[in-house]
Each structure stands twice: as C-alpha cells, then as structure tokens.
Design goal:
Layout: H1 5-12, H2 16-31, H3 36-54, H4 77-87, H5 90-94, H6 97-123, E1 145-148, E2 153-155, E3 159-161, E4 168-170, E5 180-189, E6 192-200, E7 209-218, E8 222-228, E9 235-238, H7 240-261, H8 274-304, E10 307-313
Length: about 325
C-alpha cells in the first residue's frame, strides 16, 4: 500500500522546520556570528518580507512584519506562519492548516516556557541547580500529529476518515458511542502508530454526599489502600503483580540491550531493536490494563457509596 505523504511527515522532520529557523536566528544574533545557515535564513526572510506585508489585512497594516534584529532576535508565531504560507513551504502545505499551525504552536510553547524560566532564574537563581538550557532538537524522528474534527469525520458510524487520504479506518463500536468527535491524534509508539480519538460527552450529574470521603494511600506492594468514612470495610489493591512484571521487564531489557550493544560506545551502534520495542509495548499494555482496572474499581466503589470527595496520598 502506498503511504500517504501526510503521515510520512511524522518521521521526515516537519516538526524540526519551525524549530530550526527559530533556533538559528535566535542563537546567531546572541553570538554575533554570521554563519552560512543563518545567512541563508535571513536571505529567505528578506526575499519574502514584502509579500508577507502585502497580504496583511487592513486591520493589521499599521503593524507590518519586521525582520529579526539584535534587539528582537526571536521570530514570533504570526511571522513564521505568514512566512511559511508565502513560501508555500512543502511540509506546511502537506498537512491541513490547523494541524500545521498546531505543530508550530507546540514549538512556541517550548520557547515560551524557556523564556519564562530564564526570567524566573534571573530573579530567583537559588531555586535552580543551573541556568535553564535553550530548547534542544528532539532525539526521536517520530512525532505525533493532531487533527481537529474539521479535518476528520466518522462515516457510517463505523469508519474514521482521515484528511488527504481516501482510506477509511474501521473503529468498530467507537463510531456509534454517541459522543462528539473533537480531536484525533496519531501517535508513534513502540514501533507502530496509535490512533487516539477524543470525544466530548454530556456530563451526567449524580447526587453524592459531600461529607462522605474516600481516602487512597498509594504504595508499592499494596498498590492502593482504601478507607472510607461511610463505615465500609477497608480495601487493599495488590501491587505485587505490577512490581513483579516490572522486575521481569527490567531483566529482559538489560539482557536484550547487552546483546544489541556488544560493548559499543554510548554514541555508536543501535540502541533499540524490534525485540526491545515488542518488550516495551508488552509492558506498556500490561501496566495500562492493571492501572485502568484499579482506578475503575475505586471510582465504582465511590459511586456505589455516594462518596463526594476522594483524597489521595502518594
């Protein structure tokens, strides 16, 4: 089956495009260096800046786009979005507009967090063990992509239609769950892709006595110890099965990694394999299943006993 370009972008680096431009401009001005990649970026900005300003709406004509400078070296979101539209950037146009903009917003969130940390570091350096680092390049080439409900639809109450492809994904009974589809996420995980769907459901209000409380004490051998103020008998959720499976996972991971690495230096050789990915996936599914069952049991108990408050202590 021929792969659609939309999903190939998740491993071909579209996420790195806006980040690379931001980092090159910001770091080059900070070091006062005119490196060749920086000059190429600045030349591209100079070529397209006039067209970007021409496409501004009448409302925004009073605030035209300005080239980055020593005083303002960080490229804002709206500048970068307008630049990629004018450039007809291949990867930007390959995804639906909202998905491409979502990728860019995720990148800018990381930079916003960095600037906030730097500001707090200058005011309260004693709170930190060191100076916050500038956002770095992602190690993994696989990234998740998000689609809104304007890009994805459910057809025939059984099939999920993804954008820019005629293929339909059979989602079974999820299609007739009655909720409103809000978002679809395609997430690379352990050597394959997971399609996550977010639905909105109306909240069903149930009466619960606020004075009734359920307390959960989380542990290791005992995953959760539960007591209530309703007078019911305390309960214990065993956690040794989780502990045992984690020990098996760590043992097998060390064994397979030792075979794979064969004494190579940390920066040389492969660090993962299909066997390791299957082991990671098996652990992820097993732990997820156990924790979902435990949390469902606790919530069910609270509903049955009309408990209005749940308190946890790690």
């Amino acid at each position: 089956m021929r792969e659609n370009r939309t999903y190939g972008l998740m491993r071909r680096g579209w996420y790195s495009q806006p980040f690379t431009l931001l980092r090159q401009v910001f770091t080059s001005f900070g070091r006062n260096e005119s490196l060749q990649p920086f000059q190429q970026v600045m030349n591209s900005l100079e070529v397209h800046i006039d067209t970007m300003n021409e496409r501004l709406s009448e409302k925004n004509r009073s605030r035209p786009f300005m080239l980055p400078s020593q005083e303002k070296s960080f490229v804002p979101y709206y500048f970068l979005d307008a630049l990629f539209k004018v450039m007809e950037q291949t990867d930007y146009r390959a995804l639906p507009a909202q998905s491409s903009q979502g990728v860019m917003k995720a990148v800018f969130q990381n930079w916003t967090a960095f600037f906030a940390s730097m500001k707090d570091y200058r005011m309260h350096p004693e709170k930190y063990t060191g100076k916050p680092n500038i956002p770095g390049y992602a190690r993994s080439k696989l990234k998740e992509v998000e689609f809104s409900n304007q890009d994805c639809v459910i057809k025939g109450r059984k099939f999920l239609k993804l954008p820019k492809t005629k293929l339909l994904l059979n989602i079974g009974k999820l299609g007739c769950s009655g909720g409103q589809l809000m978002q679809v996420r395609v997430v690379p995980r352990h050597g394959h892709y997971v399609v996550e769907m977010v639905f909105a459901y109306p909240i069903e209000k149930k009466e619960a006595a606020k004075e009734n409380t359920l307390a959960v004490d989380l542990g290791v051998d005992n995953l959760a110890t539960i007591v209530t103020t309703t007078g019911s008998k305390p309960m214990i959720v065993k956690g040794k099965i989780v502990k045992a499976f984690n020990q098996y996972y760590n043992k097998m991971k060390a064994h397979y990694t030792r075979i794979l690495r064969q004494g190579n230096e940390p920066h040389k050789g492969a660090h993962t394999s299909r066997r390791l990915e299957r082991l990671h996936l098996k652990r992820h599914r097993r732990i997820k299943d156990l924790f979902h069952k435990a949390s469902h049991h606790i919530v069910k108990l609270a509903v049955e006993q009309h408990i209005g408050t749940i308190v946890t202590r790690a």
